[in-house]
Amino acid sequence: MRIVLDKLWVGCKNYTDLVGFGEGGWGRVLIAGAGVTSAIAVLGFLIGSILGSLVAWAKMSPIRLARGVADAYTTTLRGVPDLLVIYLLYFGGNSLLSTFAGFFGANGFVGMPTFATGVLAIGIISAAYQAEVLRGAFNTVAKGSIEAAHAVGMGRWLLFRRVVAPQVLHYALPGLGNTWQLALKETALISVVGLVELLRQAQMASGSTRRPFEFFITAGLLYLTITVVSSLLFRFAEYRSACRMGG
């Protein structure tokens, strides 16, 4: 039994030395990779929220063309693989930038920044899912409250700010929490265009040390930590929203 405990102690010490913050440890670069992952997910989710709101509005528009374009957007983005969207955006963006730069006399290849590509890709993909969540939440809003607001003479902007938006956000928060989780997991795909995020950093560390198990376990724990913290934040937001709605 003592031998087993000694081996476990040595194994734990070797692991903490490997992924720790001391000399020769990879802790700092892994934390930096987690920071890049979080930044891509947050910025991409915010872009998706803005774009998704516009798409949701278009899907409920009385204009047939707007509804058709919005339906085509959500159907396409939810139907094709996310990796394909990232490839198309990266290589297509590089081609457009190189062509555009050529008009001003630039020669050679001009590439898109990988971080911007990742944020934009996550935002475009997330918008398709958030649009459906927001559209469903709007359809759940009590029509009586809107009619009552019209009856007391509320303007369109005041009606949206005080009546519609709080209810839509209240009903949409659980679904938005799910789309956030999707955005967080999709960040792992951005490494294909050369961005060093958490998973890519774990791959590089495992290649350098030939100890992939330890690094991928650590990456999984960091992903789980981000997920747990963000889930708690969404639950708190849902609780505050329920309090404001009187639920």
Mind explaining what this structure looks like?
With about 250 residues, the chain is mostly helical. It has a single domain, classed as MetI-like (MetI-like fold), CATH 1.10.3720.10. It has 9 helices and no strands. It has helices at about 1-20, 25-60, 65-80, 80-100, 115-140, 145-150, 155-185, 200-210, 210-245. The N and C termini lie far apart (about 55 Å).
Q: Based on the coordinates given, report the CATH architecture.
A: Orthogonal Bundle
DSSP E strands, number: 0
Output the number of helix runs. 9
**Poorly predicted parts:** none
**CATH hierarchy class name:** Mainly Alpha
Largest sheet: none
User: Which range best describes the helical content: under 10%, 10-25%, 25-40%, 40-55%, 55-70% or over 70%?
Assistant: over 70%
Q: Helices and strands: which structural class?
A: mainly alpha
Morphology call = flat
Q: Which range does the strand content fall in?
A: under 5%
Summarize the helix and strand pattern as letters: HHHHHHHHH
Cα end-to-end separation? 56 Å
- For the record, the count of structural domains works out to 1
Supply the CATH superfamily name: MetI-like
Q: Return the CATH topology.
A: MetI-like fold
Estimated radius of gyration? 23 Å
The averaged pLDDT comes out at 87
